Amino acid sequence: MVKVYVPIDSAALSLGAERTAKRIVQEAQTRGIQVELVRNGSRGLFWLEPLVEVETAQGRVAFGPVQPKDVASLFVAAFTDALSDSARAHPLYLGLTDEIAWLKKQQRLTFARVGIIDPLSLEDYLAHDGYQGLKNALAMTGADIVKAVTDSGLRGRGGAAFPTGIKWNTVLNAPAEQKYVVCNADEGDSGTYSDRMIMEDDPFVLIEGMTIAGIAVGATQGYIYLRSEYPHALKTLNEAIRKANLQGYLGENILGSGHSFHLEVRRAAGAYVCGEETSLLESLEGKRGLVRFKPPLPAIEGLFGKPTIVNNVISLATVPIILDKGAQYYADYGMGRSRGTLPIQLAGNLKQTGLVELAFGATLRELLYEFGGGSASGRPIRAVQVGGPLGAYLPESQFDTPLDYEEFTKIWAVLGHGGIVAFDDSVDMAKMARYAFEFCAEESCGKCTPCRIGSTRGVEVMDKIVLGKNHPQNVQLLRDLSDTMLNGSLCALGGMTPYPVLSALNHFPEDFGLSNKEAAA
Amino acid sequence: MVGCEVGLDNTLSNEQHAQIQAHIQAHQHVPGGLMPLLHAIQDDIGYVPELVYPEIAKALALSVAEVHGVVTFYHHFRTHPIGKHVLQVCRAESCQSMGSEKMEAELKAKLGVDYHQTTADGSVTLLPVYCLGNCGCSPAVMLDDEVYGRMNTEKVTELIAEVCHG
Q1: CATH number of the domain that residue A443 is part of
Q2: Are residues A467 and A397 in the same domain?
Q3: Which residues of chain B have a CB within 8 Å of the CB of A432?
Q4: How many angstroms separate the Cα of A118 from the Cα of each of A9, A194, B91, B125?
Q5: Would you list the DSSP string of A6-47?
Q6: What are the backbone angles phi and psi of residue A309, rounded to the nearest 5°?
Q7: How far apart are CA B99 and CA A21, in angstroms?
């Protein structure tokens, strides 16, 4: 019997993993070889997907990318003994998975199990330290759980980087009969997919994190607000929730503790603005996703007017390891006020894209060249957008900036959700600036004027700049408009659209028909 | 009544109407039940027919205007029937960095439609989408419920042929 792993993560499926898995089953039948096929998550090395692993006495051996046409040769050379000389000689042989440098250099805390376990096997989850955090939490007071999260230094991984423990503490101290835990899984930023990977590849860690949050602050109902573009994550989460309920990890009287926590997935409907927490809450209440004025904070008056924790998937999925290994263990990673690790998502025009979890402090250059392997097109990398469609574009001169919330603030950029999108030198930055406005116009909820009107005016001004009409005046107008949006918008959608626009203008003035001298003036 | 312009294509069979009524009943008392209800209807019928807004409104104690407001706020919800298959092409930055704009233009020409339109034979509706969470494998498209990565016009055309002709 040979144990073979073929990922079921969307990225692997998008590159043909399902066909590869089917061929392995067929080939095993034809050859009369017994194969135990495990559908694991993705290890996050997307240029090697579908990545097939074979279990051996020394650990798993990887082959990739494996297309259906490669399967027969793998049966001949590798599946009976993946440590044999014939296996090593196979053109798709990658060696022991754990020894692959790209993985070995990472510090996987939140993603510790991703790609290793069968996402829907609760037994697998438990065998890999799953639910240790919850067990510890059940023996603690709510205040002590909140203190552990605060001491870990964890900050909101959705992008705002607000200290998670402080948010929890507000909910803990808000007296109410009903409180809620809401997971923001409306991962709409281009260049990000770490939420999706957690939900598809290790769903129990999110469920555990939300359960701990509920127990800490006294919330008995949780919702995962999941974007409608993620049908696989929806299926996986619902199945994982069903299993957790059956085994007493969710529902009434969790593990006999007397605590209760119910969890439900709610589908979003394709509105980017609903990634903003108050708009998300409106949507969960069954309304148009209009942004709310703050205060009151959602921690005081959130879902249905009750105290509510709203956290991103990664923030919540990081809670179990903090409660398992201790706040200090997590806080020992990182730099400055950015503690712990950040799951970075390499995307766009890079040779080696994928999930890289590292302690804060690595530089963009290391990520783009050492991990990313440079551009996919082979041309020079000219610009990098970090932190989604509302993140700044950075030129090569800023590639040595360490990934740290404060260091990025210093260069008028954001880390956001840790997505990095690389562009080669064929990119037209004026077009990207125009696109930023276009996206904002498309997705604006319409509540505040700077965002609703400003985005459309922005597209018009950019069109004039590209045509060279009244050039200096229109560039000035672009700056004024950006200033209004930046300071006058109700939420980050309008308020941060100037980041990609002005960073493109300031770092790449030649694309806007300006000389460097004009740009400086 | 809203939906007076509904044409023949928008008429509901008795069976569809019964399905919708069952969904309304199931979601009537769910907190924030309108969104899950609209999803359930669209999952079954393919769109949210305007002519059932009054029934939804009555059951959920909302105005017809509120139901209309919610349906039209979200890109995902449709008020008219669409093609047999839905092709969503990602327009976001990561896919742009890998040449999605060229693919977009070629696909529109090949299918003979613009975004939000359906091919003449009713087989495929083309929709834009802003990120499919497959940015490590750009350009990405979604055909019905499956995501495909590292696409180009030829590959997408093949995928369409496969779903349309088995």
Answers
A1: 1.20.1440.230
A2: no
A3: 93, 96
A4: 11, 17, 32, 35
A5: ---SHHHHHTTHHHHHHHHHHHHHHHT--EEEE-----SBGG
A6: -85, 125
A7: 30
Which residues form the domain of A450?
Answer: 429-520
| Same-domain status, A152 and A48 | no
Residues A488/A492/A495/A497 CA torsion (nearest 10 deg):
-150
Say yes or no for a CB contact (<8 Å) between A191 and B132: no
Q: Do A511 and A470 lie in a common domain?
A: yes
**ipTM of the shown complex:** 0.95
pLDDT tens for A329-352 read 999 999 999 999 999 999 999 999
Mean per-residue pLDDT, A401-425: 97
Beta strand spans in chain B (E)? 85-90, 117-118, 124-129, 141-143, 146-148
With residue A345 as reference, give the H or E element that holds it.
Answer: strand A341-348
Q: How many residues are given for chain A?
A: 521
Residues of B with CB under 8 A from a CB of A: 31-36, 38-39, 60, 66, 69-70, 73-77, 88, 92-98, 129-138, 140, 142, 145-150
Query: What confidence score (pLDDT) does residue B3 get?
Result: 31
Q: How many domains does chain A have?
A: 4
Q: Cα(A101)–Cα(A112) distance, rounded to whole angstroms?
A: 16
Q: Does residue B8 carry a pLDDT above 80?
A: no
Residue (of A421, A439, A417) closest to A383 by Cα position = A421
Per the document, the length of chain B is 166
Calpha distance A352→A371 (Å, rounded): 7
CB-CB under 8 Å, A345 with B134? no
Which chain B residues have a beta carbon less than 8 Å from that of A434? none
Share of chain B above pLDDT 70, in %: 93
Q: Could you tell me which residues come within 8 angstroms of residue A363 by beta carbon, excluding any fewer than 6 positions away?
A: A399, A400, A401, A402, A403
CATH of the domain spanning B85-165 = 3.40.30.10
C-alpha torsion B31→B37→B38→B40, nearest 10: 140
Task: Report the CATH number that the domain containing residue A279 is assigned in CATH.
Answer: 3.40.50.11540
- Give the angle A164-A272-B112 at the CA atoms, nearest 5°: 155
Average pLDDT over residues A444-463: 98
pTM (two decimals): 0.97
Domain's final residue, options A72, A104, A136: A104
Furthest-apart CA atoms within chain A: distance in Å: 76
The yes-or-no verdict on residue A308 having pLDDT over 50 is yes
Alpha-helix residue ranges (DSSP H) falling in A128-267 = 132-138, 142-152, 164-172, 194-201, 203-217, 231-246
